[in-house]
Every structure is written in C-alpha cells, then in structure tokens.
Amino acid sequence: MLATSITQRSPVGSRLNREISSTCRFNCSIVVVAAHPSNKNAPKSSPSRNTTTHAAPWAFSRRALLVAAPSLLALAPAFRAGAFTPPPPGLRLHQDKLDGYSFFYPEDWLPVTTSGNDVFFRNPFNAEENLFVDVSSPSSSKFESVTDLGSPETAAIKNLDQFLGEFMSTRLGVKREGEVVSAVARTGDDGLQYYDIQTRVKSYASRNQLAVTQTEIDQGIELEWDRRFLTVLGVANKRLYSWRLQTSNKVFEKDPERLLSVARSFKCKEV
What we know:
Elements: E1 2-9, E2 15-24, E3 28-35, E4 51-54, H1 62-80, E5 91-96, E6 101-106, E7 110-111, E8 119-122, E9 130-135, H2 152-166, E10 175-187, E11 193-206, H3 214-219, E12 221-236, E13 239-248, H4 249-254, H5 256-264, E14 267-268
Antiparallel strand pairs: 1-2, 2-3, 3-4, 5-6, 6-14, 7-8, 8-9, 9-13, 10-11, 11-12, 12-13
C-alpha cells in the first residue's frame, strides 16, 4: 500500500488539495479526491474544507503509474511461466502443431523421414537408440480417454506382445524374452492422463550355427542384446498417441532420470 499526497496551486492562485491513493495488486484502482476552489467571498482565515469524492479508475497520474509499474512487472513472469517451458540443456523441442503433440529429444539425434512413423529420431552414434511417435487414424479411432485401453497393466501387456511380434526372428536358435518393468497412470501438467510404461526385451542367440538338436542349440546360447523401451500413451482429438523410446538397458541404468524426463515431456493436445 503506497499513499502519495500532492499539494498544488491553481493558475488563479486558489489552493487545490488532491490526495491520490493507489492500491496495486493484480489491477490498479486510483481514487481521486478533488477540493472545490475556495470561496472568494469567504474570510481568508476560514478556507472551504468541503470536498467531493469521485471514483475515477481511469484517471491515472504519471506519478501513480510510475509507482505502480514495478509491481505490475513483478507479476508478469508468473503469467508467462506456463506459456512455454524451454528444453533442459542437451535437449531440443519437437512440436507438431498439425497433429497436436510435442516432446523433448536429445539434441544430437537426427530425424529419419522414411520410417513410416509420424516422426522418428535416432542416435547416429548408437544404432540401438531411437524414438518415434505413432498417431492413430482419425477416421478409424474414437478414443475418449487413455483409460479406453484398460488399466496401465493391461495396456503394458499389449505393448509387450507387440514388441515381441516386431522382434520375432526366423533365425535358428534365436529366442526373445520380455517383461513389463512398470506401468503407471500419470496426470500431466496439462491436465490430461497418460500411461507411462517401461518394458524390457532380451534377445538370445546360439553361437553354434551348425547345431541340430535343441540341446546343442541351448549349449551355445548367449545374450545378443538387452533393451529398455519407454512408452507414453495419451489420447486427444479422439486419437491414440503412442510415444516410444528405445535404448540399451545398460545405457538406461547409467542415467535413468534423464531418459524418464524426456518421456514425461511428451504431451498431446486438442487441435
């Protein structure tokens, strides 16, 4: 609360008292109290004290605005904060305004335009690392919420079956095993509900390419690769959005929070 009292004399010499009270919170309201000029016929020892109060919120003085400006500017960052969140160091923002989604991705990853997905990025230094987004067709899907998929656990099992199908191999002696590491529902800062799913898939292959019996195959079996998949499922525009990141389990365990923060950055919205 800041009160400022200013006394001025009118051009004809009559005394004019003005009291300006300004209160600045979210809006500024200024009340101007102006005294009528003194009665010329009244004795000089008894000037008029009658005042009239006028509520004039539009009548800002330059001094009042200068005083109020710092308070208003201090509020501005709070309103700008929710408009845009810059990516953390080492990450970039990908935003698709047409389909209505956005996410952060490692700044050294490159886009792949021939993947068949809505968008695809890969690590040029590690063939095991990539991420992509799939969006269901607007004509064939009528999702209202991600809960249409069932519980997070149910959605995770469907995801795992899909992965095992994708990585199915016709090579002799190759075996793929998978497990659901975690499946949770999360409400994003945009108010939408998402399913965060972690899946681990291992591939085993026999070193004995000339093995004939199952016993010979099993004796030469070894771990070929061990991968972690982070999947985020969300619904907007009656469409299912599926964001998926793949990395080696070894890389993930070295710095899990970095990749998990990338996964949580995914958002879909109505367009």
